[in-house]
Write a structure and sequence with these properties.
Layout: E1 26-29, E2 32-38, E3 46-54, E4 57-61, H1 68-80, E5 88-92, H2 98-111, E6 114-118, H3 122-128, H4 137-144, H5 148-160, E7 173-175, E8 179-183, E9 186-192, E10 201-205, E11 210-214, H6 235-247, E12 253-256, H7 265-288, H8 294-299, H9 315-334, E13 338-343, E14 346-351
Parallel strand pairs: 4-5, 5-6, 6-7, 11-12
Antiparallel strand pairs: 1-2, 2-3, 3-4, 8-9, 9-10, 10-11, 13-14
Helix pairs in contact: 4-5, 6-7, 7-9
């Protein structure tokens, strides 16, 4: 949530020459178009969906949020390349978040397109559909993090917001491990990159020098960590290990889900790893200074590029800040730099 790259809100994408979220079907390579779809009520403004042309029709990487305004822009953008949703044969979805997954489910119900998603997203889908403990999992996590105020507000929100279960149906196929997918004349390496979510995947076209990075590697912001219903044990450790795996690939052109196209995956990966090491150091210093719970530590840290304090954030962003701080503290614990104890149901971190 805290990054020093140029502001996403003003970033121009080199493929379009205009703001990255401007609607259109922008060519990023031969037979590949970037289609930004709007995200109402979301500070990110848009999600990039990539349409890959094949002799049989279109394959889309990610799908957008299943809301009317997104669908209208998708229809109009596909028309720019002489296509429509009836030409979509398959979706390769990077992860289960609503702005990537839900529109694939609705379009599948219309045209029968095949939807693929990472297998490790199954627990998240089951919990969204009520297959977990029967209560919202986040409220308990906020309380364990010392964020009672956020837990109460989250519960009030959850009481009135009921998910449309039709949007959260299972995919047609699960991606498991690393594999190679044939998409028309292309071979895409589907690489499991847990961190942002447990089942996140990126798709690498090394022959063309392209990485469809989803939310794993974003050019101007850092993705949320540790904010999913089925919480991983070490989400930040997973994320940083997945970033390191990108360094083992050739330096590819970055085609992200949010923000402009960028030239170097490696350069951005290095920045993200440095960023999280800095946040780990700040979190450790906060513990050394007397902060105990994840919420208290988050209150000692700056947030967003504007270096806001925790009380300045809205409830949703304060919740993400608390969970991300927990992820940093848990990695410090795994590294042996802090220890934990339970005080009336709240996890306290102390210097080790």
């Amino acid at each position: 949530m805290n990054d020093q790259r140029p502001d996403t809100a003003h970033a121009v994408s080199p493929d379009s020459g205009v703001h990255w979220a401007e609607p259109g079907a922008w060519p990023v390579a031969a037979g590949i178009h970037r289609i930004p779809l709007p995200l109402p009520m979301d500070g990110l403004k848009a999600v990039n969906v990539y349409a890959l042309e094949t002799d049989d029709g279109l394959a889309l990487i990610d799908a957008g949020w299943a809301v009317d305004v997104s669908r209208a822009v998708l229809d109009k953008s596909l028309a720019e390349i002489g296509a429509g949703v009836g030409d979509i044969r398959r979706f390769l979805v990077t992860h289960v978040h609503r702005d990537h997954y839900t529109q694939a489910v609705t379009i599948r119900s219309e045209v029968g397109a095949h939807v693929s998603l990472g297998l490790e997203e199954r627990p998240n889908l089951e919990m969204i559909r009520g297959g977990g403990s029967g209560s919202d999992p986040f409220a308990g996590l906020f309380r364990a993090g010392g964020a009672e105020r956020i837990a109460l507000e989250w519960e009030r929100f959850a009481d009135v917001e009921t998910p449309d279960l039709a949007l959260w149906a299972d995919p047609d196929s699960w991606l498991e491990g690393d594999t190679t997918l044939t998409v028309g004349a292309r071979n895409l390496d589907a690489i499991h990159t847990p961190g942002h979510t447990q089942g996140h995947y990126v798709f690498a076209d090394t022959a063309e020098g392209l990485l469809f990075s989803g939310d794993h590697v974003l050019p101007t912001i850092t993705p949320s960590i540790g904010f999913e219903p089925a919480l991983a044990e070490q989400p930040l450790g997973d994320f940083m290990a997945s970033l390191a795996r990108m360094r083992d690939l050739p330096d590819l052109r970055l085609l992200p889900a949010h923000g402009p196209v960028a030239d170097s995956t490696h350069a951005r990966v290095d920045e993200l790893l440095d960023h999280h090491e800095e946040r780990l150091a700040l979190s450790l210093a906060a513990v050394d200074g007397g902060a105990r719970s994840a919420y208290e530590v988050a209150g000692e840290l700056p947030w967003t590029r504007h270096e806001r304090r925790l009380p300045e954030l809205d409830v949703f962003n304060a919740a993400m800040a608390t969970m991300e701080t927990r992820a940093h503290l848990e990695l410090l614990r795994a590294r042996g730099q802090v220890a934990t104890n339970d005080v009336d149901g709240v996890v306290h971190y102390v210097s080790a």
